[in-house]
Amino acid sequence: MSRDAAEARLALEMERQREFGFQYWPMFLLDGGGHAGCAGLRPFHDTRVLEIGVYVGRPFWSLRIGEEAARTVIRHAWQTTEVEALVAGHGPNNANSQAMIERLGFRYTHHEPWGPHQIMHPYYRLERPRE
Length: 131
Fold this sequence. Notes:
Blueprint: H1 3-20, E1 24-28, E2 35-43, E3 49-56, H2 65-80, E4 85-89, H3 95-103, E5 107-114, E6 119-127
Parallel strand pairs: 3-4
Antiparallel strand pairs: 1-2, 2-3, 4-6, 5-6
C-alpha cells in the first residue's frame, strides 16, 4: 500500500469511528507490543448488519491471535450496537480463515464479489444472541 493509500485508509477508519463508534482497530502483541494486524467492524449492506474483519500479519499467523481478536470484536458489537447480525468473509481458498469463522459460530450464507477484481468470496452470518 502506498503512503497516500495508507493515509486515506486511516482517514476512512477514523471517520467510521466518529460516525458509527467502530472501525478496524490496530492489534498489538501483549508481549513486546509489536504491531500484529488489525480487527474491527464496518457497515455491510445496511445498518442492521455489520461486517467483522481480522487481518493478522504473516509473522503472527501461528499465534492464533486472530480468533482472540475476533471474539473481542464480536463481544464489542453485541455490547455497543443494536445490529441484528454480523457477517464475515474470507478468501476463496483460505481454509484456516474458514475454520476460524465457523468456530466462532458463523454459518455460510452466500458468495459475493469482493475487492478490486471482484473475486467471489464466501460469506457467513452470525445472529445476535437472544437474551
